[in-house]
Amino acid sequence: MISVYKLKPKFQQLLTPVLLFLHKHNITANQITVSSILLSVMIGVLFWNADLSKWFFLSLPIGLLLRMALNALDGMMARKFNQTSRLGEVLNEVGDIVSDVIIFFPLLKFQPESVYLIVIFIVLGIINEFAGLIGKVIGKQRRYDGPMGKSDRALILGIYGLAVFFGADISGISTYIFGLIIVLLMVSTYIRLKKSLHES
Question: How far apart are CA 66 and CA 181, in angstroms?
């Protein structure tokens, strides 16, 4: 299945100089993870207040790109410099879920015509992440399979932020967009669970 996640190795390669710089300045994996969570809160707050200034919509493409970089860097730091820990895993997994809810919640404000679909989308996003975690519990590894993982959702919201910033109005088609996203999330969750069960 096509997913932005498949670009992760190339993305990590580009981030290697940043990783070495952070390590040189004694920045730890857990500090990067916490920074990612705080950044997500900032994105959510700016997004919620984007009706005050359309420039706040740019917090989505810019902020989510930075968040993806931080999410990649904390894992790279933990593996390369032996900083893996149970606390780190908890911060990473719980932080991602909480961050997603905070960032996607303002959609309820800006696309009220699709409020029920957005709620389903947010809930399925959480379930999708838990489905990935189950792979680590009953299988051999955490699963990132499927067409609507965390990176894909970030890409879509980033595009949404750019589109609204430049004056696009998706209210007439938002139900179709979120309906498609929900279907892809269900497919992604099914694939993750199926592969986890197969591995076990």
Answer: 23
Structure tokens at 28: 């730890």
DSSP H stretches of helix in 1-114:
8-24, 29-48, 59-80, 86-104, 107-110
Which residue's structure tokens are 């969570």? 37
Residue in the block written with tokens 């499927």: 146
> Who's near 29: CB < 8 A, 6+ residues apart?
74, 75, 77, 78, 81, 83, 84, 88
Please state whether the predicted TM-score (pTM) of the whole model is above 0.90.
yes
Length reported for the chain: 200
Q: How far apart are CA 163 and CA 67, in angstroms?
A: 20
Query: pLDDT confidence of 5, banded at 50, 70, 90?
Result: low
How many whole angstroms separate alpha carbon 171 and alpha carbon 133?
Answer: 34
Q: How far apart are CA 114 and CA 187, in angstroms?
A: 21
- Cα(51)–Cα(110) distance, rounded to whole angstroms? 8
- Quick one: what percent of the chain has pLDDT higher than 70? 98
The number of CA neighbours under 13 Å toward the Cβ of 154 is 23
Pair 77, 29: CB distance under 8 Å: yes
